């Protein structure tokens, strides 16, 4: 299945490379006539209302010229001060090669290049550059003036920490790159640029630290990125779903984060980060299942606290997945396993409940899922109402109406809380799916069903890869030295080795030679 | 996206070390205290286990040593070199049969025990089929994945056994362990045979095949023997605990002493009573490991005879056979007999093959790796 998908992708990319984009002025060159050039570029872009064309005379020369840019994508002050003003106030006399002189002496912008084709000019304008046309010249100056309104750096809303850096990624890829650069001042830090989106032409940057990362991983990611064939990448999730190893799996195979500190740490461990323009979510690959239960907070607390927190998370992941299933199995198949006093109180609380335990549990779990979904989509103001209604429905009404037992309410609530304590949202979704399959299995075959599903999930996991790296590492294949940072978070002084399951080129993160 | 081979499918020697206990810990350890207690007096059975274990360790070492002398060669290729190709094909085929028989026995035993401890109304066929399907799913995946499964489940098995023994301490009656060394020589011999059989020779044979997947098998024999010693240690601890808690006579008459042990103990905290179901359910993982490896070896053996046939096709042909074989015995006595025959066949076969191959190996010597 996965192979056939891959073949499909390959064919698609070949197909799209073969057919030329049917566009009016594609491949045309700039002519020597200013008016026709301006006409041409307007026609190409459909003469949009936000396209600004300013014709002017160069000071000191009686030559016509024009600048074109798109309002909103550009930094207006920059255009006014460093382009328009300098050109208009120019008092030098140029005899020949006017464009070259302007390029070298007049314009006060660092990012500037020449171009002779319409394609380049139009895409540069759409990227926020300003184009400078000079009459009787077939060359255009493209000046990097991109700017405009962007969101400022804020605290990330999805991964909040008690202690740790407060900055988060934003939608601008340049800012995001700068945020990573501020953390890692290593000259080996690489940012390899790709372009994704047939229509959106977004920047996509693959970042890694050369000398740490395993080059094979980078090459593989590059190869997979080249197969992407979509119109627009609205979020890095598009990229994630396109390049992941197994699209049939319910497990997330690539991590995402809004935190620059997490990206920097991962880069220095030998991972690869993928930044996409227009989204604050940065992808991290390869990843392993164990990492979904880790948080940056673990490194910011002292090691005993961090270890206990991690143990707690494993415990709550267990509850989130297994508790309703276990409840069904115990109540309907193995009541003998519950101590007699407890079994009496469960039986008493289930008195009058018309449904079998399985139906009761599915009912409550489904109610919870609906509430959860409703709470996410609604505006914050109404969201509180949902909370109250849900609390009442789950906590009070259902019990007093005799539809579910109070024990079931406890089970559902405990499961819900446990699900929320899982740090990664994508794995929490997986856990929710697993929970339902375990409930069905428990309803059919009791504890035996639960273990059968558990074994099946394990079989699936051991066959899974994240960019070629086993997903269950470092548990299996076991890399014992990586266990220092698994459930136990060993003291920072002991974490001198990079995770070897990533097969980094340079394994030691510190110089351990005795001084 | 299977084109990428960064996460290599090679098996490391450490995986072999884990595979040995994974393969050998299964149904046997649940039943054997009964058989052994029948033959020996008080706690003397541990001597038999030790002797039997030594034989098993030696056997494992011999198997892996022989296989490791032909690094990266399939069993069929080095067996053909040692005992001509037709004979090698017959042996390989018999290994496949043995794997099928063992899988069938495990599948049947698991449904039978589930029937006793988990649910008595669900048809045995449903339990057996669901288990078999999961095994088929595992075997259809990558072979390295199977070894990863081993290393994920084995710690849980050891953990649960340790907990079991730990919580049994309260119920131990030291009088049951006495008197020491009162068994006569015949009893020891019988006990040794009993425990050797329990260390299922069937399981040892699989390493003829798996060593060929190990990249650098020089250390494999030592690792495998080390892995085997864990099994022996586990057997001794389990046996002593059973005897100490139940006494010799009771143990000899309980059908599944280890599971009954789980029934006896109490975990403080008052959340669970009667841990036998939980214990057995977790033990299913151990039985699963064994069944999956046995089934996989059958597939591997047949695949080496018919290299052009797709692995999945072999699996789909074999699984109905396993299922029907598992359904043949009617009573639990017949299941016991079935298990016994499987074990006798296993030991006899592996023993004979081992001797033949080693003799030929000594005569012909190791051939240089062809690859």
Quick overview of this protein structure:
The complex is a heterodimer of chains A (515) and B (371). Chain A has helices at residues 2-18, 34-45, 76-88, 98-106, 118-126, 173-183, 215-226, 236-243, 260-269, 297-300, 303-332, 340-350, 357-377, 380-400, 406-420, 425-462, and strands at 51-57, 64-70, 112-115, 129-134, 140-144, 189-196, 202-209, 255-257, 272-276, 282-285, 465-466, 469-470.
Backbone shape of chain B: globular
| Oligomerization category of the chains in this entry | heterodimer
Number of strands of chain B: 0
CATH 4th-level superfamily of chain B:
Amino acid/polyamine transporter I
> How much of the polypeptide of chain A forms β-strand, as a percent range?
5-15%
Task: Please indicate the percent range of residues of chain B in DSSP E strands (runs of 2 or more).
Answer: under 5%
Main sheet makeup of chain B: none
Order of helices and strands of chain B, N to C?
HHHHHHHHHHHHHHHH
Count up the helices of chain A. Answer: 16
Integer-rounded radius of gyration of chain B = 21 Å
Which pair of chains forms the biggest interface, and how many residues does each contribute?
A: A-B, 45 and 46 residues
CATH fold group of chain B = Amino acid/polyamine transporter I
Topology order of chain A in helix (H) and strand (E) letters: HHEEHHEHEEHEEHHEHEEHHHHHHHEE
Number of strands of chain A: 12
CATH architecture of chain B: Up-down Bundle
How many domains, in number, for the residues of chain B? 1
Keywords:
heterodimer; A: 515 residues; alpha+beta; 5-stranded antiparallel sheet; 16 helices; disordered N terminus; disordered C terminus; B: 371 residues; mainly alpha; Amino acid/polyamine transporter I
Would you kindly provide a written description of the structure presented here, covering whatever features stand out?
The complex is a heterodimer of chains A (515) and B (371). With 515 residues, chain A is an alpha+beta fold. Chain A has helices spanning 2-18, 34-45, 76-88, 98-106, 118-126, 173-183, 215-226, 236-243, 260-269, 297-300, 303-332, 340-350, 357-377, 380-400, 406-420, 425-462; strands at residues 51-57, 64-70, 112-115, 129-134, 140-144, 189-196, 202-209, 255-257, 272-276, 282-285, 465-466, 469-470. Chain A has 16 helices and twelve strands. In chain A, the strands form three sheets. In chain A, strands 1-2-4-5-3 form a five-stranded antiparallel sheet, sandwiched between helices. In chain A, strands 6-7-9-10-8 form a five-stranded antiparallel sheet, sandwiched between helices. A two-stranded antiparallel sheet of chain A has the order 11-12. In chain A, strand 9 (272-276) and strand 10 (282-285) form a beta hairpin. The two termini of chain A are 55 Å apart. Residues 1-25 and 511-515 of chain A have low confidence and may be disordered. With 371 residues, chain B is mainly alpha-helical. In chain B, 75% of the residues lie in helices and 0% in strands. Chain B contains 16 helices and no strands. Chain B has helices at 13-24, 28-39, 45-68, 75-83, 85-117, 124-140, 143-168, 185-198, 201-205, 207-210, 220-246, 248-253, 257-264, 276-305, 311-327, 332-364. In chain B, helix 3 runs antiparallel to helix 11 (220-246) and helix 3 packs across helix 16 (332-364). Chain B is globular, with a radius of gyration of 21 Å. Classes of the chains: A alpha+beta (515), B mainly alpha (371).
